[in-house]
Design a protein that fits this description.
Blueprint: H1 2-14, H2 35-43, E1 47-59, E2 79-92, E3 98-101, H3 103-106, E4 111-116, E5 122-124, E6 126-131, E7 136-140, E8 151-152, E9 163-168, E10 176-187, E11 197-200, E12 212-214, E13 219-227, E14 235-239, H4 240-253, E15 259-260, E16 263-267, H5 270-275, E17 284-289, H6 294-297, E18 305-309, E19 312-313, H7 317-325, E20 332-339, E21 342-349, E22 351-352, E23 374-375, E24 382-386, H8 389-395, H9 400-403, E25 406-411, H10 416-420, E26 427-431, E27 434-435, H11 439-445, E28 449-457, E29 460-468
Parallel strand pairs: 8-13
Antiparallel strand pairs: 1-2, 1-4, 2-3, 3-7, 4-5, 6-7, 9-10, 9-12, 10-11, 11-14, 12-13, 13-14, 15-22, 16-17, 17-18, 18-19, 18-20, 20-21, 23-24, 24-25, 26-27, 26-28, 28-29
Length: about 475
């Protein structure tokens, strides 16, 4: 009898809807003493603990060099499998088990375990969709009962100073609620997220990622996402309006369709402007146009400077990336371009960003056979080979046969090339604005003094500067 009564009460508990919204507080109105108690009772049943397990191969050697902004592509370094785990939070948004969390919480996970408040059972979740650039993921669990779910509010009308509460699973200590205010809006941290963050002083600790940030009416207005390790009392959340804008595509496709232009670019600096003979001082400098891409079909060329996107000023490559990323996947756009100091307007039709631009895995196995290796002049400190079928076979790097360009196969430590960021297996595209296809052309284009070297590395194009002596 008691067991039946307990099960019946448990069922009723899970059926409580989080759509019981608290009355709106008027400006200047005193905050009720039990306001946060009511919030906890409404939101806590919708919050879930997430733990994920993954096996990650870790090298015995540390390949990171503080002088280089990349990891050297050695795939034959001995590795060992290390079982890793990730702790995070999520919140339920539908009675049938849809859950919002951060993409980094479930990234590369083999198994995603979800624990619901008041239920001792671990549920294995499946990934419905995820978008790493916005750090949002949608997962789903299946239960025998209907789940309580949170009501999504709006972040657009939020004001600095407004009370909020953050829910999460800090350091794995089950459910926790902290309170604070909105400290700022529109915080841009591009290395973390493509959306501007909400900043709050409500405590957001490790494990809170993916949890809800709610207003005083019990509506979710943000997704807890990041903390600033340099300071206490600073946390960041993704605005819920931005999350709602991608939910439909995550449900339907499992990913977010975004515009794809097909270029690599750099910020135009005064020094680069002088080098290419441009009168412009700011903009996005194109350093590579991908074949059969929208950019190539639209007439864009290497060393074009993009300064306008649909009549909006473009001051940097970051501005252009955001403009493209926020455009529909098949949008027609008008680009304002400077080419040899002449202004052009080009119409380009974007495509969905679904192209796999990754190159074949690299292998640094060497051969006993000798190949012709050339050393760069002017004490630059690097060695090259002509990439072709012969060098591909001897070096056992298949992709070299398709490159047909000079490739870096050696760098002297602390040399000019090393300090400039040149890396093993970089492909040389041009030297001092001159396209090169052979090592001889590279050496003929190099000189004493400043050299500009455009290289291709792991699907990215870089423009390096190094000084010959």
């Amino acid at each position: 009898m008691y067991k039946f009564l307990f099960s019946f009460c448990l069922f009723l508990t899970f059926n409580v809807s989080a759509k019981i919204i608290l009355p709106k507080l008027l400006p200047g109105e005193k905050l009720p003493a039990d306001q946060f108690i009511k919030l906890y009772k409404i939101i806590n049943p919708t919050v879930v603990n997430i733990s994920s397990k993954l096996n990650k191969k870790t090298s015995y050697y540390n390949l990171k060099n503080p002088l280089l902004p990349f990891i050297l592509p050695y795939n034959n370094i001995p590795r060992r499998a290390e079982p890793l785990s990730s702790l995070g939070t999520g919140f339920i948004i539908s009675a049938d088990g849809l859950i919002i969390t951060n993409a980094h919480v479930i990234s590369n996970a083999n198994i995603i375990n979800v624990k619901v408040a008041g239920d001792n059972k671990d549920y294995v979740a499946k990934i419905i969709g995820q978008d790493k650039s916005s750090d949002i993921a949608l997962i789903k669990i299946t239960t025998k009962y209907k789940l309580s779910f949170a009501s999504l509010g709006s972040s657009q009308s939020l004001q600095v100073g407004q009370w909020v509460a953050a829910f999460g699973n800090p350091y794995g200590y089950s459910h926790t609620m902290t309170k604070g205010i909105i400290s700022a809006k529109g915080r841009e941290i591009d290395e973390l997220n493509r959306f501007p963050f909400l900043q709050t002083d409500a405590s957001i600790n490790k494990g809170n990622s993916g949890g809800p940030l709610v207003n005083m009416q019990g509506k979710v207005i943000g997704v807890n996402s990041a903390i600033d390790p340099r300071a206490q009392g600073i946390g960041f959340a993704i605005p819920i309006d931005n999350v709602k804008s991608i939910l439909k595509e995550l449900k339907e496709y499992g990913f977010v369709k975004r515009g794809f232009l097909g270029i690599y670019m750099l910020d135009l600096t005064p020094r680069l402007a002088r080098k290419i003979g441009s009168n412009k001082k700011r903009g996005a400098l194109i350093v590579e146009v991908l074949k059969n891409s929208p950019s190539e079909k639209g007439g864009l060329k290497v060393y074009d400077i993009i300064t306008k996107f649909n009549k909006k000023n473009i001051l940097s490559s970051k501005h252009l990336s955001k403009a493209i990323g926020n455009s529909a996947s098949n949008a027609k756009i008008i680009l304002g371009v400077y080419r040899k100091n002449k202004f052009l307007q080009l119409e380009v039709t974007l495509k969905p960003n679904s192209q796999d631009l990754r190159r074949s895995p690299l292998n640094k196995k060497t051969s006993s056979q000798k190949i012709k290796i050339y050393q760069a002049p002017y004490k630059l400190g690097f060695k090259l080979v002509n990439a072709n079928k012969k060098s591909a076979n001897q070096l056992r790097i298949p992709y070299l046969a398709r490159v047909n360009r000079p490739v870096v196969v050696g760098i002297y430590k602390h040399s000019t090339a090393h300090l400039a960021g040149l890396a093993y297996l970089d492909v040389i595209l041009d030297i001092n604005l001159k396209k090169v296809k052979t090592v001889k052309q590279v050496f003929n284009s190099l000189r004493r003094g400043t050299n500009y070297v455009r290289i291709l590395r792991n699907k990215q194009v870089y423009l390096l500067q190094m000084r010959g002596r």
